[in-house]
Design a protein that fits this description.
- The protein has 15 helices and 10 strands.
- The strands form 2 sheets. Strands 1-2-10-7-8-9 form a 6-stranded mixed sheet, with helices on both faces. It has a 4-stranded parallel sheet with strand order 5-4-3-6.
- The protein is of the alpha/beta class.
- The protein is globular and about 65 Å long.
- The protein has helices at residues 7-10, 39-43, 63-76, 89-101, 116-124, 136-149, 160-166, 168-177, 192-206, 226-229, 251-261, 270-284, 290-305, 326-332, 345-355; strands spanning 33-35, 48-53, 81-85, 104-110, 128-132, 153-154, 183-187, 215-221, 264-268, 313-318.
- The protein binds ligand F0G.
- Ligand F0G is lined by residues 61, 63, 86-90, 157, 187-193, 242-243, 289, 291-292, 319-320.
């Protein structure tokens, strides 16, 4: 058995690397595709739902797939520094892979609007964190401007190597199932990931690795849903801070995905998103961050209306780990706080019998 050493090594022939390329990797990819067992019974529908749990990547989100490629190529090109705007996950991934490569990472984040775990890990990875009084879209515009002036490589998903790395998630799904799902559901923010999955599925279908391609369903938070509005949103708002984005950079590419795949965009309220997050934790033992649960919120809605028909195989990408946003998790469980008792046997017995 060969040791797993990351997605570039696994999919080397399908990625833009040469034999001499120094691969910057933390062993990302190869994430579990978990079949939901209890939720389909609960909703009483004959559907097969898998979740691709990207929260199990090295920095806890799917961004690691793109970052291993983007940083590998930045280093190959001689870059000494990378930069990104971020709602938290890209910044964490950029910081980690920069450390690994021995280069500097600069990250622009919206002050007060990124989840605690993401801030903590980015600090630990020793990135230069620049907080701005403005949202992700403003940060993205600034990053593009500054990269014109300073010797820094942008590692947001406008960097095409990010998309190359992220397309491997579609490869993994097909390699595991032996076919592409009927529907693939994703949370959409900057729209890089939906673009990447579609590229992966298309490449496999073109090469006849699989005979089918999925319908791509892109779901947004109601307060940050430019693809549903049909135009950019000035002041996006949602508790799912990872997708608090009003002006997606991959606008045209994501519309092409929708048209080519016969898919659609839709939006869901924060309440629906949080309900899906809790449902996944409480019925399946899978703890993802709020934004990630948007994929399941959308899938469950579209299954209930029949837009996704019974008999379908569905994959929902869970983009990030629930541990990244402990504050929301604690609020979600405000009614079920731990009990505190005396440290003696009778008290423990009583506490157990109270529940059973
Ligand atoms: N889910 C999570 C957990 C994310 O962090 C993001 C994006 C998305 C979904 C949306 O993916 O942008 O490819 O459509 N986060 C970026 C960041 C913007 O800065 O971490 P997308």
């Amino acid at each position: 058995m060969t040791r797993y050493t990351g997605l570039i090594e696994r999919y080397r022939s399908r990625l833009p690397v040469s034999a001499d390329t120094r691969i910057i990797s933390l062993g990302e990819g190869n994430t579990p595709l978990i079949q939901l067992q209890n939720i389909p019974k609960l909703i009483g529908k004959d559907v097969t739902i898998y979740v691709k749990f990207e929260g199990l990547n090295p920095t806890g989100s799917f961004k690691d797939r793109g970052m291993t490629m983007a940083v590998t190529k930045a280093v190959e090109a001689g870059s000494q520094a990378i930069i990104c705007a971020s709602t938290g996950n890209t910044s964490a991934a950029a910081a980690a892979y920069a450390v690994r490569a021995g280069i500097k990472a600069f990250v622009l984040i919206p002050e007060g609007k990124i989840a605690l775990g993401k801030l903590a890990q980015t600090l630990m990875y020793d990135a230069k964190i620049i907080q701005i009084n403005g949202n992700f879209d403003k940060g993205m515009a600034l990053v593009k401007e500054v990269a014109e002036l300073a010797p820094v490589t942008i590692v947001n998903s406008i960097n095409p190597f990010r998309i190359e790395g992220q397309k491997t998630a579609a490869f993994e799904i097909v390699d595991e199932l032996g076919f592409a799902p009927d529907f693939h559901c994703l949370p959409v923010g900057n729209a890089g990931n939906i673009t990447a999955y579609w590229k992966g599925y298309k490449e496999y279908a073109t090469e006849r690795v699989c005979g089918n391609r999925p319908v791509m369903c892109g779901y947004q938070a109601a307060g940050a849903a430019p693809f549903v509005a049909g135009h950019a949103i000035e002041n996006p708002e949602t508790l799912a801070t990872a997708i608090r984005i009003g002006n997606p950079q991959s606008w045209d590419l994501a519309w092409a995905v929708q048209k080519e795949s016969g898919g659609w965009f839709d939006k869901f309220s924060d309440e629906q998103i949080l309900a899906a997050q809790k449902m996944l934790s409480q019925f399946e033992g899978v703890f993802c961050e709020p934004a990630s649960a948007t994929s399941l919120a959308g899938a469950l809605h579209d299954i209930s209306t029949g837009k996704i028909p019974e008999g379908s195989t569905i994959v929902c990408t869970l983009t990030g780990n629930g541990i990244k946003d402990p504050e929301i998790a604690m609020k979600q469980c405000a009614d079920t706080q731990p009990v505190t008792i005396e440290a003696d046997l009778d008290a423990v017995k009583r506490a157990i019998l109270d529940v059973l």
